[in-house]
Structures are given as structure tokens and as C-alpha cells.
Amino acid sequence: MSVNKAKTNKQLIYDTAKNLFFTEGYQVGFRRIAQEIGISQGLITYHFKTKRNIAIEIYKEDYQILSTYLKYIVNPDEDIFLYIVSFYDLNSRIDIANPEKLSFVRMTQSENISCEAIYASSFKQIYLKLIIHMQPNNYNQEKNLTLFLATTYSTFSAILQKQTEGFDFSADEALIHSVDLMYYCLGYDRNPKRTADIIQKAKERVDSLFAKYPHLLDIHQYFIK
Question: What is the C-alpha separation between 74 and 219, in angstroms, rounded?
């Protein structure tokens, strides 16, 4: 198999799997993906080994797209707190506007895929900028990052699961909780006014982002074909 042919096959498998995961659900297996393309399941295994690896690539691509757009309105080098909170709000609004994406996020939480994708992507460097502001402790930066992401993403995952079971917790409440938890994990005391202020600023930034790039509210325009 030529290098160009292998690259084409891998990209086709990835694009097809991504579309099926969003339109039919993450339960879709290699057989369905292979049928859609007209290739063997073995070729999918050759390129990706597991379905989880494809999902990690999906999150990585999404992080890259959204973080790039977000930098147009918030510079992470100038205000990393506002950047992260804006990223939380941006993702939340896109998920709400696209039930199929929200379903994908919920179905992949048990495998810790969204968190794992951070380590495998450039977004890790964004979070490391935040960790610099953590109150001093005896841990190095990498350990602090691991603890921060493990705590925040496991909590996010648990809340998503409870919401599927009927837990009454709105998107705004979830955002407040996420921001409070962010500060807590960084070693700061709870401060409702600080949380409310940064959320308001973040929402204003995300509003302006959607006003300029409305296609971001539709995953069929910015993410899947």
C-alpha cells in the first residue's frame, strides 16, 4: 500500500467514523464503519486499533478548531482564566444546540476520552498556562495538571450521567459549578462574585464569537460533513 493510499484510507475511515458516531451513536462498531466505506474491518484496526482511539482523535480535532476560534476573542496569554471559562461556555452552548454531539459526549465519558484527548493535543499547553496560577504545593506542574483534569473532568462526567438519569441541573448551574471547581482545584477560596463576574465576561465573549461565526453553532457546518 502506498503512503498516499494509506493516508487517504485513514482519513476516510476517520471521517466516516466521526459522521456515524454523531448521526447513529457511539455504539457504532467497526463492522458498520467498514460497511459504510466498503472496506475490511481489519483495515480499520490497522489504522486505529480501537474505537476509543478514533474518539480521541475526534476530541482533538474539536479542541483544535474551537480553541483556535476562541483565541480570536480571548488571548490565553493575557487572561487564561477567562479563556478557560469561555471554552467551558462555548462547548456547553454547542452541545445544547446539537443533541447528537451532546449524546456523543455523554457516551464517551465513561472511557475518560475527553480528558485523555487533552494530553494528546495542543490543548494541554493551554491548561498548563492555567496550572501556573495554582497555589503553591509540593507537586510538580505535570502532577498538578493530572490532578486538576482528573478532578474537573470526572465531576463533569458524573454530572452528565446524572442528567441522563433525570437529575435537574441546568447548563447555567453546571457552568457555575465548573468555574467554582476550577478555582477550588487551583487552591482558591470560593467567591461567588468572582465566579459570576468571569462567567458574565465569558458569555459576552462567546456571544460575540457566535455573532461573527454563527456556523460554530451547527456541527454539520464546522465539524462533520
Answer: 22
Query: According to the model, what pLDDT value does residue 8 have?
Result: 67
| Prediction pTM value | 0.92
Q: Per-residue DSSP letters for 101-148?
A: HHHHHHHHGGGTHHHHHHHTSTHHHHHHHHHTTSPP-SS-HHHHHHHH
All 3 cell numbers of residue 210? 457566535
- Whole-number Cα distances in Å, 186 to 81, 130, 162, 223: 11, 9, 25, 32
**Do 22 and 101 meet the contact criterion of CB atoms below 8 Å apart?**
yes
* Domains of the chain in sequence order: 1-49 (1.10.10), 55-222 (no CATH)
CB 105 within 8 A of CB 95: yes
C-alpha 212/C-alpha 190 separation (Å) is 34
Q: 11 is written with which cell numbers?
A: 482519513
- C-alpha cell recorded at residue 149: 483534569
Contact of 76 with 131, CB cutoff 8 Å:
no
Place of cell 461573527: 212
Smallest CA-to-CA distance from 201 within 119, 94, 97, 89 is with 89
**Cβ pair 178, 88 in contact under 8 A:** yes
Q: What is the pLDDT of residues 163-185, one digit of tens each?
A: 888 889 999 999 999 999 999 99
Closest CA to 159 of 105, 93, 117: 105
